[in-house]
Design goal:
Number of strands: 2
Order of helices and strands: EHHEHHH
Radius of gyration: 17 Å
Oligomer: single chain
Strand order of the largest sheet: 1-2
Strand content: 5-15%
Shape: globular
């Protein structure tokens, strides 16, 4: 099942630099969970780390393109990870008047609205039944 991309428009180079900074900060936070191997958080952190590296590279290429404004087309997983990175900004930025704080709040709101508007197709292949959930829980150690 392929979900539609999340599109962010009119992203400035300055905003991309802030988003890249937030991605790096959140990446540092996720790396702490990578130390705790054999836990569910380890696998989650591993997945998020891969997505954060992808986001870093996407933002880096946009910053280096020298275009004053551009669009970002993100996979749903990338958009969710960027959402968490922007949300993490409120733990690291204490000055509510700062540019980073306002930029994080702006993109957090935009991503929240975009992610909540995603229509997930419902068909027989994607329907999760109680039996399949029970089987999945049995497989988790």
């Amino acid at each position: 099942m392929q979900l539609p991309p999340i599109k962010l428009t009119k992203v400035t180079r300055e905003h991309a630099k802030v988003l890249q900074y937030l991605v790096c900060e959140y990446l540092d936070e996720q790396e702490k969970d990578l130390q705790k191997q054999a836990s569910v958080r380890f696998y989650s952190a591993l997945q998020e780390t891969a997505l954060l590296v992808e986001l870093f590279l996407i933002l880096r290429s946009k910053i280096e393109s020298r275009k004053p404004k551009f669009g970002l087309s993100l996979k749903c997983q990338q958009a969710v990870t960027l959402f968490f990175a922007c949300n993490h900004a409120f733990k690291i930025v204490t000055d509510k008047e700062s540019y980073v704080y306002h930029c994080a709040q702006c993109y957090l709101n935009n991503l929240d609205k975009a992610l909540k508007s995603v229509n997930i197709p419902r068909d027989s292949e994607t329907t999760i039944t109680a039996a399949s959930l029970e089987l999945a829980y049995k497989l988790i150690p």
